[in-house]
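G., the chain you wanted modeled:
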Amino acid sequence: MSNTGGRRRPPTIHDVAREAGVSRGTVSRVLNGGHYVSPAAQEAVNAAIRRTGYVVNRHARSLITGRSDSVGFLLTEPQEKFFEDPNFNILLRGCTQALAAHDIPLLLMLAGTEDERRRITRYITSGHVDGVLLVSSHSGNPVAEELSEAGVPLVACGKPIGLGSKISYVAADDRDGARDMTRHLLSLGRRRIGTVTGPLDTPGGVERLAGYKEVLTESGIEVDDDLIVSGDYSRLSGERGAERLLAQVPDLDAVFVASDLMARGVLTTLERAGRRVPEDVAVGGFDDSPAALASSPELTTMRQPFDRISAEMVRVLLAQIGGEDTAAVILPTELVKREST
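Predicted structure as tokens:
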């Protein structure tokens, strides 16, 4: 009987683990030489491989093909975002330095379009890297799930939306950071506090908006939809977001902006409108990136521990390459007060 219903998905490491009745980490250790695996578990995994027809690819680090001894830094954003947003360069530098301590090179991969995503996914699953550090994965972007299903060790920067515990991730505490910034603005006596959110199909965008709303509600202030506009982390979206806020809420007296780069755009719009910062409108950002110090006035912001995020992403990925299961790490943020509040 011919298969006319479409090509069947090839078996993955998850299928082998299910068939053998062991964890994915145990299967990975068998594929990588059988260290710390009992003879019974090793036989169960080998039998499951035969039954499922699982084919060991290079990325599995098997004894047959070995490791590629490299790691991919995959940014699922358009190329211009990589050059505009300083956070990506900070993360790339930190991950490169952390991997250098293990003598492992890092390959930069940009996949901002559907075609680029398909090509890079094929490249990765063909075994050209041992694992992937994934940055800026929007919900609906299937790359994280595709790589995970293919058995590629993977760690995301930020909690991937909708994937639960399938994917390892390292994140700053976005919600708590947003709560701290909103409390700070309230402590200054500001009550008409707007926000320019990050993309609401990303974890940072969702969590920072949630923290802002929670503090207003706890303080007895009604959440006003006119005070909430969305951005995409670019400076231009900050400018346009501030224009909408001023049009919708002329008595605006503070803005929490979900990234420093967008906050610079907000400051530009406020200056054009003749609003003084912080006298008329206090402005708080998020990241403590170089954009915060390049702003005029210098920006009050929430510091993300980028060095720790990079180091933890590398640590978790290397552990996963070595056969450990998925892990989640959440790191605290810190309020940095400067001239804009």
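The chain has a mean pLDDT of 89.

Shout if anything looks off.
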